[in-house]
User: Fold these one by one.
Assistant:
Number 1:
Amino acid sequence: MTLIPEVQAVVDKLNGAEISFTDLTVAEGRQLYVETLARSGGEPAAMAAVDDRQIPGPAGDIAIRRYRPEGLSAAPAPTVIYFHGGGWVLGDLDSHDRICRQLAQRAGCQLIAVDYRLAPEHPLPASSEDAIAAFEWLTVHAAELDIDPKRVAVAGDSAGGQLSAVVALAARDHDWPLAFQALIYPATDLRGAARHYPSRARNAQIPPLTAGLMDWFGRHATDEATDTRDWRVSPLMADSLAGVAPALVLTAGADVLMDEGALYATRLHDDAVPCDHAHFAGVIHGSIEMYAWLAVTTTMLDRVADALRAALTPGA
């Protein structure tokens, strides 16, 4: 895989790192993940208001963080509900604070980031259950958080892309209002057979998400009770995607998840769901969180933000 020059420089930096997530305890990995994304994400974009609160979930309270950018019109507002990445093991509201600020600012939308239970303490589908419950609660209580229920999107990166796809399926099945889904290099297939996707082998040694780290995530995120064919775990296994919200699926050419993301976009298209597949050749997994390191990150952020703005503020 040929990388664009600036991405190659980042890959060289990552390959030279002395510490790998697979060599750490889960607690150490979580701390390193927050620190790494703080460095790669750059200075946090200014917001008019940021506030944290708790909402009820299926196994206890779920933490959320609401971002309102400068210049946002009075409530009720178009709203993006964001689920962070991190392989269902890493990540929290702080790790993805920078990308949430960037997307809220660029899309001109309110954004609500949702935390969820992590594995191995809570194996899949616990995170999916939290994501679905959070979306339902936010839909029902839209007025409390200045949400326009007719202008709501879900978005997420990697594991968060998987959760966004899961929420879109649940919204269809429960007739909950959802205008759009933005899936950023999503993991859509957690079956053992997923190891046979060509991109898993072709990009196996390209950080930050190597095949070894993806296997590490898989071992931690699932246990003997996890059914990897359950659509709440592998949304690609849903019988049909027909009727879900229109989508943007973003894939990266040098990513082990490229093939399953592209296949999900194809499934959406085949099931007559409006879908824009934005492919970035020569780009690695995690690039949209690398605003301080990569110029292409701005292009990726704008592609997602433009799609969200178009879907949530018609005529903008």
Note: The longest strand covers residues 147-157.
Number 2:
Amino acid sequence: MRMSREAMAQHHQEIVTAGARLLRERGIEGLSVADLMQAAGLTHGGFYRHFASKDAFVCEATDAAFGGVAGMRNAAGPDSSAGEQLAAFSDFYLSQAHCGEPGIGCPIAAYGAEAARASGEVRARFNAGVEGVVEWIAERLDGPEVQRRRRAAEMLAVMVGAVVAARAVGSAGLTDLILSSARQRTAELAAAVH
């Protein structure tokens, strides 16, 4: 029995959604096609009806994962000032909640190191996602464009590094210190005008 186009599209979306979460939890190499399809509630054999390769899937799931970062960026609400939007994003990014739930968090902190060793296609998609985050931050900073972009890149690097380190240490006291120090540094960078 052939599946309708609507059902096929729905299954495709279910795979991408489940995969975006699993990629952030397990990384590229830690995610098997069988586990992915099981998480989506589908059979293993159906994967290649939806994707030409695992790389093709990783590209789509990476786009979806960066879409989740867009949700984090809207934490302050649409009527908030640029500074409030940036502060809310930074506060959530550098929170225990984000550290404790990599499956719903930022793909940069979750599997960025692995993406650096992935195919050119995956790296290109990852680059586009990172570029989008840097641009969003830069648009909310004061000063000349070159300095705003530089500070935005530094802020993102501080936030990502802090989350990676906080997830790795396992000590609540050290995790809190790392996250609070990063929140302070990102606030300083947001307030600086060069």
Note: Residues 53-191 form a domain with the Tetracycline Repressor; domain 2 fold (CATH 1.10.357.10).
Number 3:
Amino acid sequence: MTLKKDLYRDPDKGKIAGVCAGLAEYFGWELWLVRILVVSAFFLFAGPFIFVSYIAAWFILDKKPGSKGSKTPFVAHSSVTKTRGKGWHNQTDDEDKVVVKSKIWQAGEPPKQAFQDIQQRFAKNEIRLRQVETYVTSSEFQLNREISQL
């Protein structure tokens, strides 16, 4: 059983832009082999075509998630967080932003990855909600409420 991978460029492992490193990871080949194939194709077969293809891949492919310099586009999403032990409020975090690609050349996550991320966030928020419900139904909450009303 093989898992479908997405093609990214990996600037952390790459020498110029990480295109060869991304291709090597995608196809499961050794990085040095992909570099030799690209350089050989450049000199032996179609130099201008390989050069233009490399530059196009540099601009079209997204950086590998988690690599240095990879940016997540901004989309606001609220989450409930506890602050200073007194109440709850909405707050946005960088990790709570999801942008789904609609076209292959756009930045963002593929739909399958975005769906998995959203499922994880819902699970995390459900745990938080259970903690809030536990606190609100506890005698500690009632006591704090009565004291604050004095």
Note: Strands lie at 79-82, 88-91.
Number 4:
Amino acid sequence: MINGLSLLDRSRIRAGETGAAALRATVARATRAELLGYDRIWVAEHHGVPGIAGAAPAVLLAAVAGATSTVRIGSAGVMLPHHQPIVVAEQFATLSAFAPGRVDLGLGRSPGFTAPVRRALRQGENDFATDLAELRAYLDGTAEVTAHPRPDGPVPLHVLATGSGLRVAAEAGLPVIVGGPLLGVGGDPGPGMEALDAYRRAFRPTERQPEPRVAISLDVLIADTEAEAADLLLPEAWAMAWSRTHGVFPPLESVAAVRAAPRTSRQQGHLDRTVAAAITGTRAAVESRLAELLERTGAAELVAASSTFDRDALAASDASLAALFGKSGPVKPG
């Protein structure tokens, strides 16, 4: 049964604005989400991406922590192959000192988007499971080297998981955040449910996490009409199509600019796939589709990874989603 509603904000840059403006907008969105009663705010890590300002989750979360007081804050996620585990442990223990009991550390293993970015990150051969165990030992105080500062309490770990990531999470007894093809939003679920069932069967309980836990992440956008909601998704869908065909993830363009832009059949195909993997519509339509998805996946948390060019429309969508889940104000940390 779902017991968490979260937002993932990637600090998407809009055409004509700076990365600094996008970061400030993330903090402002987090403060509004707290007032709406969201349980958690997630931020992400992207490097060398023109359309995304969110490159340093720990730093951005420090700003979010300073602007909020009750909502949980987390990374979705820190890409562990880009970092030394002890540095990640130190960063999030430090963050926890400023927001005790509110910090979550979500971890992924995606490589840099392009070869030059991977070289800039000095990315080599890493074993995600080994690095994950090392990081966990630093946070628990059981590693050969004691990482400082020591966190006042536990910093919960989450794994951004695909097929093999689900296996690692199950063996480590950690909750997962899944999205994309595994959810089967656009039609045939494919191997998604089998992968989630395998995660639950293989899960090794721990004292801190006695049961498997699944959070699902996808674009969810609500507007007064189906057409308006579909338009909200267009800027992100077009940016995704452009990145797949040009190797560069651009800033978000307005709906009018997207409609006017010429597109190839290949770009249209990518755009259609992004649209199919999202849930958009009126509040009633979104409620119905989410109910089916949450029941099918057995998810404990919905992570709305939504973005659009019009920030006022995004704020209205966030408010509608919170109301759909019966949120009415700030939640207590913990």
Note: Strands lie at 4-9, 40-43, 72-79, 103-108, 157-160, 176-179, 214-218, 220-222, 279-281, 301-304.
